[in-house]
Amino acid sequence: MSSALSPALEIADLSFSHSGREPVLEDVTLDMRTGEFLALIGPNGGGKSTLLRLIVGLLRPCSGTLTVFGKAPGQASANIGYVPQFSGLSPDFPATVLEMTLMGAAEPCARGGIWGRDRRARDRAHAYLEILGLTGLAGQSLSSLSGGQRRRAMVARALMGGPENFLLHPDSTSPEFPFLLLLDEPTAGVDAEGTFCFYEFLGKLRGGISIIVVSHDLFMVSPFFDRVAFVNRRLTPLSGPSLTQDALAALFGRHMHACPVADMQHALGGRHLSGCSHPACAAGLQTHNPEAAAGGGPGSALGRVDGEVAG
Predict the structure, then answer these.
(1) Does an H or E element contain 132, and which?
(2) Domain check: are 30 and 95 in the same one?
(3) DSSP string covering 64-99, please?
(4) Collapsing DSSP states into helix, strand and coil, what is residue 292?
(5) What would the mean pLDDT of 100-115 be, rounded to a whole number?
């Protein structure tokens, strides 16, 4: 990757709110390297989708700065592929899967047509559909697809706007045509096996293009990504792409009662309040906090450990 490339994304002190309402995003700062694979996780309503719309240029920040490959979002639209969480595309749209995919390569036609369908574009479209598991559906109408298949077809369409050679040379980012792919909840409606295969495919694109994936799913905290950040009004970078106790605490807070989140936090070696009711603590609290077992110190029933709260 050339050091001369502009960062894929530079955000500084960005805030956004709808008129007369509470801030949706506040003091967001993020730098993203060209060719990086970033996951944004967080609760529904935390501002993740809003942040993507700001990057695309569909919304404007109330304060702060945002550039994509060194340009304002409105000037970088040719370098961005975007798959929103909710598409306005009707399932009855009169087009085949291949035709919709080719729309991602739309450009002015010298003969006055709407969009080119040359052999090179068709070959690329077929390649993306094959990789995304849709190779046998190219000639079918959109109305025949399941929700998950339709979302994968939209990803293929978004990829058509990117550089032509990155699929063949994914480890070589093009300084002439850098590309940022934004995916908002791309595996909604897709089963677990399909979800894994989808992210495995995205992992193969690492380096060739820059990718941001948004989700509230814990699966997103995975080794597929270079970095993970938590978004809930503010943006907090997590320490790494692995599922850690810090990541769980950022998403859910720290739980001391018996529940699936507490199961995971105990498995990751979390510390807890004295009197924790989780079964893993019932037989020997002193293995978690010896001071609490003695009845005193910050981990006692009247104290807290590391700011933990009862879930």
Answers:
(1) none
(2) yes
(3) EEEEETTB-GGG-GGGEEEE-SS----TT-S-BHHH
(4) helix
(5) 70
Tens-place pLDDT, residues 70-104: 999 988 888 899 998 766 666 677 889 998 899 88
Distance of alpha carbon 43 from alpha carbon 252, whole angstroms:
9
Amino acid (one-letter) located at 234:
R
The pLDDT value recorded for residue 237 is 86
The answer on 110 and 224 residing in a single domain is yes
Q: How confident is the model at residue 199 (pLDDT cuts 50, 70, 90)?
A: confident
CA 282 to chain centre: 38
- How many structural domains are present in the chain? 2
pLDDT digit string, tens, across residues 176-194: 678 999 999 887 766 777 7
CA distance 173 to 159: 14
The percent of residues above 90 in pLDDT, for the chain, comes to: 23
Range of the domain at 82: 9-250
Q: Is residue 306 part of a domain?
A: yes
Quote the CA–CA distance of 61 and 54 in Å, as a whole number: 7
Q: Are 55 and 105 found together in one domain?
A: yes
Cα–Cα nearest to 141, from 94, 85, 82? 94
Size of the chain in residues: 311
Q: What string of DSSP letters covers 17-31?
A: --TTS--SEEEEEEE
Both tokens assigned to 238 = 């997590």
Same domain, 227 and 108: yes
Q: CA dihedral in degrees (219, 157, 133, 226; nearest 10)?
A: -30
E strand residue ranges, the chain: 9-16, 25-32, 37-41, 63-68, 80-83, 180-184, 210-215, 227-232, 234-237
